[in-house]
Design goal:
Elements (H helix, E strand, L loop, with lengths): L2 H11 L4 H8 L3 H8 L7 H11 L3 H5 L3 H51 L3 E2 L7 E6 L2 E6 L17 E5 L2 E6 L3 E6 L11 E5 L14 H13 L1 H19 L1
Antiparallel strand pairs: 1-2, 2-3, 3-4, 4-5, 5-6, 6-7
Helix pairs in contact: 2-3
Amino acid sequence: MNIGDKIKEQRLKKELTQAQLSELLNVSRSTVSSWEVGRNYPDLETIIAISDLFGISLDNLLREDTEMTKDLSKKMKWNMYYKRILIIIGIVVLVYSGFNGKLRLDEQHYLKNLKEHSWKQDDYRDSASYSIKEEGVLYATYIIKNGFNPIPLPEHDPWVIARKENLVVKVNKRDKKTVYILKDNDPKVEYDAAVEVDSDGNIIKSELNWSDEKEEFLKEYLKKYQKEYVELLKRTTAKRQEVVG
């Protein structure tokens, strides 16, 4: 006996019409009729309600109806998959919200520090650009705006670029130091390069595309202005610390 027959049997025992049973289960009369003739099956929630209404166990209600059992098993598996998917989506949303929230807090922290140390916006076209000039050195930084972003921005740790006459340096995350040797800044420069250096102005590593002549020139140039670079890097590191706090 399938579940439709059992529903009909129990309904008749209770002397209920299809319309009356449909009202008790909050479904349409045609739905009850389709169950009883085997066109389709009630869902799990309704099966539990039928079990409670007729006072019979789920085991008795579902026993012998292999098609219904297979269908119910399939639905339960899909429900399990849906729950897992929802949990994963929920975790992703929480991580996304938390990450964006941290970025916005970081942004406000950086802007507060800039204001306290008298940095000013230096580009009317870009409100995220800030600068300050002290003792003949121009310092510049950039604060990424973190409103609502469908794609989270990468974590932002502001860099600071400093320029004093023909010397340009940059200090960024983990106090990584870079010296920019450029022809546009100094006509005596023979090779343009961005050179990663240590606190003493020495090259940390050579680039694979440097020729021997280029590397030798860069070392000599750094040595010539070593004292100035060391002092400028020291000041720029301190300025960056003003920003990040």
